[in-house]
Amino acid sequence: MQPIISIQQLNKRYASGLHALKDIDLEIERGEIFALLGPNGAGKTTLISTICGISRPSSGTVIADGHDTVSDYRAARAKIGLVPQELSTDMFETVLATVKFSRGLFGKPQNDAYIEKLLRDLSLWDKHSAKIMTLSGGMKRRVMIAKALAHEPQILFLDEPTAGVDVELRRDMWQMVRGLRDNGVTIILTTHYIEEAEEMADRIGVIRRGELILVEDKHTLMEKLGERELRLQLQQPLASIPVALSGYPLTLTEDGSELIYTFDSHSDHTGIAELLRKLDQHGIDFRNLRSRESSLEDIFVSLVRAS
Ligand SMILES: Nc1ncnc2c1ncn2[C@@H]1O[C@H](COP(=O)(O)OP(=O)(O)OP(=O)(O)O)[C@@H](O)[C@H]1O
């Protein structure tokens, strides 16, 4: 299948001289949820703005559903819905008028049935005649999504969709985004909440200092880079790791109460049995043993830290 977005050798230099995007190559598959991760200032918003045609590339091309985002801007933009980080709308307007107006901006004929379905899908229909200023923060965010989808785009960009939102609302948002994907919308989101990417994304892209350093299927990424950790809660705290154990990948917690052993989850030989024997030989008793797999967060932190 043809990718819905195809980005080739994309570069963006700001007037200040800052090289914000460096030789980005990326294809987004139709119908996927793609999460773009990166530390502050990595270039996520710049990448989204450039794909959406809001910011012009310095070089390279972006094709959105068959249309070049520079030479065929209007057609490309019509395929895209963008939910920006900041709430940006007329707070005195009603929900329905706001969403209808957005559709009109793209020259689409009025379609009351579509707008009603959209508002119902986003649990906003009850509020269609309410002024936006009277809505809760979560509802305002939904209105921003309804606005972005008013012209029936195939692609939806969500820039930090749940920043500052409480856990419950975040889960609602996730469910709603999945619902949109099930209706055939391709979704690209940026997030600081790694948990969000872990929960939602089919694929993950990591951007660091303007470079896309990794694009991978989420499960493959977690399998490939994941490590397991064994934590041994000691009966007696240790002041330091005994010399006899210095050859093992062990760390001691600051208070000396836990030994942490890290091992490759795919290796046939974990070395755990041998480690436990050694501990026994040296009279190190433990009262509890827990194992944990590294999360996407651990993987992400190690990726962006590596220089
Ligand atoms: N209009 C602009 N002019 C000059 N530099 C800019 C402009 N917009 C962004 N930058 C710079 O480009 C770099 C990338 O910024 P961008 O906002 O794309 O990062 P981000 O990954 O979205 O960050 P955050 O997670 O903080 O939102 C930063 O160094 C930023 O200061």
TrEMBL record:
CDD domains: ABC_DR_subfamily_A. It holds the Pfam family ABC_tran. InterPro entries: AAA+_ATPase, ABC_transporter-like_ATP-bd, ABC_transporter-like_CS, ABC_transporter_ATP-binding, P-loop_NTPase. One of its GO terms (molecular function) is ATP binding. This is ABC-2 type transport system ATP-binding protein. SMART domains: AAA (SM00382). PROSITE patterns: ABC_TRANSPORTER_1, ABC_TRANSPORTER_2. The lineage of its organism: Bacteria, Pseudomonadati, Pseudomonadota, Gammaproteobacteria, Methylohalomonadales.
